[in-house]
Specification:
mainly alpha, 5 helices
């Protein structure tokens, strides 16, 4: 059986980029973006290879753009926070 690399980065990428480049972006926008992925945070936050691959692939979207990479990190951190609130 061949190992395949699973990633869900495409699931998140368009919305993350759209929100980052939105003229309406504000200080709470990362949380607003993370909230759009409610019930799907597991794709990027599980303790699993696919979540790790998803995070790495999303970080690659920000290569060469320091503000974008920080934005992606913030959105993922907000996903972890959202998920922690559900699990409590």
């Amino acid at each position: 059986m061949k190992n395949t690399r699973v990633t869900y980065s495409e699931f998140f990428a368009n919305q993350i980029l759209s929100d980052f480049y939105s003229p309406d972006r504000h200080s709470d926008s990362a949380m607003d973006t993370a909230d759009k992925f409610r019930d799907d945070e597991w794709r990027a936050t599980d303790d699993s290879p696919y979540a790790h691959h998803t995070q790495i692939d999303l970080y690659k979207l920000g290569e060469g753009n320091r503000n974008l990479i920080f934005w992606i990190i913030e959105v993922i951190d907000c996903m972890f926070y959202n998920r922690s609130m559900v699990e409590e």
